């Protein structure tokens, strides 16, 4: 009889870990998943993707009604914000989905080991004072908030994304430190609900890593929406007095300091891998300079039998990237061939309009060789125009010689949904001509992708 307790133990039940555990069990492996949180689903379901989208959706509807956008469509309503109910539907969404993962664990016979896991040796971990031995251990411990030195997060006045999801009242002035994805999504929520929002960003543009033209256009759109942007600006200190904060900022290149008075301050300057308390050294594992566990193409670490996936390994910190790695790692453990194409991972910012991209930015593509670029404005897309959603564009970047699509970038109300076809086309090695000659339903926002692909060879119809 085997002296192993499990074929696979997964540490962490976020989108990486819970998906890995379910797939491993589906493949016939005896599987356990360790989670220290009271509910399954990790950052994404508990305090990330899901609650933020619940607040983004509700605040968007409120804004449409309160700002008179609905009145322009002939819908007149007396609007009142009931923030408690809005938070209630957010909590309901989280409860439903985290409970759903518990159901899936039972259905697939994945055992949930409740508690914090720490390595005892390379094939053994401790959970709540009990040791468990497994042939394979998958580290899927995710990430947490990067602190800003000298700024204490109290989750009341100075909040991380977790506190910013739960503010009990709309702040008069919200100062957001960091103009990345979290800052813009949660900044948008509170702006729509009535707060004055100021985003302080160290770099000269928002959304680092995204296509340059997209970043510039996004800044224009957020400014038009009334979000104040302080680019190339650094925060030098935050002091809290009672329920107010003073944020001192100065130009990144040096210059006169300025103080912003705030009712809430959101610290959203990135996230860092979670490895504290795991005792990786007892398993012979180390982390790189960024605190991540390095893995090879198969998601195997340097120690045989130990694998790692999701936010704790290099790559974009995205739930769908973690999920795909979860499936791949389970398949590799089971002796199949699990593959994740890290060149084709879409990213979406769920503001209004949404901002989405997949593949290379124009800047990256040009560094590698000659490219052709096709663009189409949403203003000329019949559905976007009819829906009064004129902002944004689609940009298709193709290799100048082979016409193979290298990247697609979209700003549009439903960019997050539109980007899926671009990712699939790229996964199939499509050319811009393949997209241009694919019949797209009319009237849809997605026709803008077809037209941008037609524009690669200079032949869009509607501009
Ligand atoms: P996590 O989801 O972080 O899960 C790791 C789990 O491991 C946690 O539950 C933790 O409690 C547990 N754990 C850690 N250490 C131990 C231990 N030693 N023992 C036991 N358990 C342990 N991504 C998107 O793709 N789309 C979005 O819209 C999106 N929105 C976001 C919004 C916010 C506000 C935030 C903060 C993040 C968002 N993300 C989004 C990012 C996304 O949440 C992460 O990329 C994703 O959750 C990573 O999954 P993971 O499985 O690697 O780790
Ligand atoms: P981020 O890396 O997206 O943005 C952080 C921003 O803060 C950057 O623009 C950076 O230049 C800036 N910054 C860093 N230090 C600063 C300082 N001292 N002063 C001012 N600005 C500073 O990080 P985030 O927004 O915290 O999000 C963390 C992670 O969560 C991201 O990797 C993202 O992928 C993930 N996430 C994804 C989604 C989504 O997919 N829709 C939503 C939320 C979060």
Automatic annotation (TrEMBL):
GO terms for biological process: 2-oxoglutarate metabolic process; cellular respiration. InterPro entries: Class-I_Pyr_Nuc-Dis_Oxidored (IPR050151), FAD/NAD-bd_sf (IPR036188), FAD/NAD-binding_dom (IPR023753), FAD/NAD-linked_Rdtase_dimer_sf (IPR016156), Lipoamide_DH (IPR006258), Pyr_nuc-diS_OxRdtase (IPR001100), Pyr_nucl-diS_OxRdtase_dimer (IPR004099), Pyr_OxRdtase_I_AS (IPR012999). FAD binds at residues 53, 141-143, 311, 317-320. It catalyses: N(6)-[(R)-dihydrolipoyl]-L-lysyl-[protein] + NAD(+) = N(6)-[(R)-lipoyl]-L-lysyl-[protein] + NADH + H(+). SUPFAM superfamilies: FAD/NAD(P)-binding domain, FAD/NAD-linked reductases, dimerisation (C-terminal) domain. The keyword NAD applies. The lineage of its organism: Bacteria, Pseudomonadati, Pseudomonadota, Alphaproteobacteria, Sphingomonadales. Disulfide bonds join 44-49. GO terms for cellular component: cytoplasm; transferase complex. Keywords: Disulfide bond, FAD, Flavoprotein, NAD, Nucleotide-binding, Oxidoreductase, Redox-active center. Residues 345-453 form the Pyridine nucleotide-disulphide oxidoreductase dimerisation domain. GO terms for molecular function: dihydrolipoyl dehydrogenase (NADH) activity; flavin adenine dinucleotide binding. The active site is a redox-active disulfide bond. It holds the Pfam family Pyr_redox_2. Its EC number is 1.8.1.4. This is Dihydrolipoyl dehydrogenase. It comes from the Bacteria. NAD(+) binds at residues 178-185, 201, 270. Its cofactor is FAD. The keyword Zinc does not apply. Binds 1 FAD per subunit.
């Amino acid at each position: 009889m085997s002296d192993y307790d499990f074929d696979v133990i997964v540490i962490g039940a976020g989108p990486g870990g819970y998906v890995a555990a379910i797939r491993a069990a589906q493949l016939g492996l005896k599987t356990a998943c360790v989670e220290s949180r009271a509910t399954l689903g990790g950052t994404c379901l508990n305090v990330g993707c899901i609650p933020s989208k619940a607040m983004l959706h509700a605040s968007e509807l409120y804004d449409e009604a309160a700002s008179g956008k609905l009145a322009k469509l002939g819908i007149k309503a007396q609007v009142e914000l009931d923030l408690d109910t809005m938070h209630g539907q957010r909590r309901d969404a989280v409860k439903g989905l985290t409970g759903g993962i518990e159901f899936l664990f039972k259905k697939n016979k994945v055992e949930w080991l409740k508690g914090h896991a720490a390595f005892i040796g390379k094939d053994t971990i401790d959970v709540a004072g009990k040791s468990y031995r497994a042939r394979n251990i998958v580290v899927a411990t995710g990430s947490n908030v990067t602190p800003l030195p000298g700024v204490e997060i109290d989750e009341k006045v100075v909040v991380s994304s977790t506190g910013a999801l739960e503010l009990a009242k709309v702040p008069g002035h919200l100062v957001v430190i960091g103009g990345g994805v979290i800052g813009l999504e949660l900044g948008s929520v509170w702006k729509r609900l009535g707060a004055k929002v100021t985003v302080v960003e160290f770099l000269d543009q928002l959304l680092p890593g995204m296509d340059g033209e997209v970043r510039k256009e996004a800044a224009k759109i957020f400014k038009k929406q009334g979000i104040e942007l302080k680019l190339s600006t650094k925060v030098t200190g935050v002091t809290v007095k009672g329920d107010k904060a003073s944020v001192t900022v100065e130009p990144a290149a040096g210059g006169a300091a300025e103080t912003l008075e705030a009712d809430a301050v959101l610290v959203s300057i990135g996230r860092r891998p979670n490895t504290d308390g795991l005792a990786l050294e007892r398993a012979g594992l180390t982390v790189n300079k960024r605190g991540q566990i390095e893995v090879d193409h198969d998601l195997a670490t340097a120690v045989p039998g130990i694998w790692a996936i999701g936010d704790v390994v290099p790559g974009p910190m995205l739930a769908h990237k973690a999920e795909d790695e979860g499936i791949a790692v389970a398949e590799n453990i089971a002796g199949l061939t699990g593959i994740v194409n890290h060149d084709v991972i879409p990213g979406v910012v769920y503001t209004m309009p949404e901002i989405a991209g997949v593949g290379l930015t124009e800047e990256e593509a040009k560094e590698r060789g000659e490219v052709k670029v096709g663009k189409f404005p949403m203003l000329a897309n019949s559905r976007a125009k009819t829906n009064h959603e004129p902002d944004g564009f689609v940009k298709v970047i193709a290799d100048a010689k082979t016409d193979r699509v290298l990247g697609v970038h979209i700003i549009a109300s439903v960019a997050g949904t539109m980007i899926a076809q671009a990712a699939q086309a790229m996964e199939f090695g499509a050319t811009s001509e393949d997209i241009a000659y694919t019949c797209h339903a009319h009237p849809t926002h997605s026709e803008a992708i077809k037209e941008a692909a037609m524009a690669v060879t200079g032949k869009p119809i509607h501009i």
